[in-house]
Amino acid sequence: MQFGGVVLAKLEKQAVLLLVVQALFAVGNALSGTFVPVYLWKASQSYTLIGWFTMAQYACSGLTFWLAGKWVKEHNKMNSLRAGIALSGLFYCTVLLLAGEAQRYAIPLGALNGVALGFFWLAYNVVYFEITEPDTRDSYNGWAGLSVSGAGIVAPWISGILITSMSGEKGYRLIFTLSLIIFAATVILSFWLKKRKSHGTYNWRHGWQQLSQKGNAWRRMFAAIVAQGVREGVFMFLIGLVVYISTKDESKLGTYALITSLVALASFWAAGKWLKRSNRSRAMLIGSVMIAVVVVPLFWKMSYTTLLLLGIGTSLFIPLYFVPMTSSVFDLIGSSRESAEEREEFVVLREAGLVTGRLIGLSCYLIVLPLNDSALAITCLLLAVGSFPIASWWLLRPLLKNGSYIS
């Protein structure tokens, strides 16, 4: 099977296995993660509670990246990966046991999920850097996006059907249980990933040292990553919640995820095939502008139809922004031998930028929505934070020029 000029069967076996682990992790989260905000909303009817759950998740994820960086760099990064998967299972197990009382523990639950995501994605990003090269990253990211989109096609759709077809909370209990089983299987599979060599000493102040150096390309890159995070901080949870609030039907939310993931599957495939280092800047410009433009139909009317247009439009154009953005970050990490040896610290720095941006975006949500939760207010918020990726492109133009990393 060929994708983006790379034959999957010819990839290093460890790379293929890492993609499978990521796909299973995505399936586990897609089954239940889409519906956790809905579950909390149904119990609380509070935008504020959802916001603080998400705030705890983002903050603890970023803190875990920084603290676990020493473990990943100096000890066994694969154990960090497994810990993240296991803690994700524990998160859904806890929600399952708390049932209707989960809303009372929204902040601790958000913190637990954040720690789980921090452990997993820190280790995953370091290993991803180690098994890819500049010429294969766009294709690998295309494959990764393809697998995540594939996970999002069927899992939420099945979850939505199960929830609506079962009385009370039986459907939620079933999907949380299924996620728990998938995470357990993923932990077992991860033991086939080889232990990778550790080297060097973790530098706790590395990120600050990079950003304090005048002319350092990471100052520009960090700002671009923050802009990326501002959008993610709101879009990652609010769109699904708004779809449910607009329809009051979990099955329609599942169908929404099915349709948008199908579109994303095709667009990530196309992005991996078409994108090269030479056309990243043009792709990022088109992608960043269009994922803001697709919010505009919501000003006409916030309905399932207009939200579906938003979802389809985002799925079509997000790869043009996301793939070059991700590839450029890791190319900068690998721009010199010294930089590559500090890959764990740079992955932590990248996450610090994302978390900073997510917290900024979420803070805007917590300011606006508790005061005014009208369709117009939500649409204005989505357009405002959804336009920040344009700033990412503008900041990265010098770094993207001819694939060179100049300040």
From TrEMBL:
Tell where it localizes.
Cell membrane
Q: Which Pfam families match?
A: MFS_1
**GO MF terms held by the record:** transmembrane transporter activity
Q: Which residues form the signal peptide?
A: none
This protein's GO cellular component annotations are: plasma membrane
Query: Is the keyword DNA repair assigned to this protein?
Result: no
Q: Which domain of life is it from?
A: Bacteria
Keywords attached to this Swiss-Prot or TrEMBL record, sorted alphabetically, are: Membrane, Transmembrane, Transmembrane helix
**TM spans (from-to):** 16-41, 47-68, 80-99, 105-128, 140-162, 174-193, 222-247, 253-271, 283-300, 306-326, 347-368, 374-396
Give the bilayer topology.
Multi-pass membrane protein
Q: What is this protein called?
A: MFS transporter
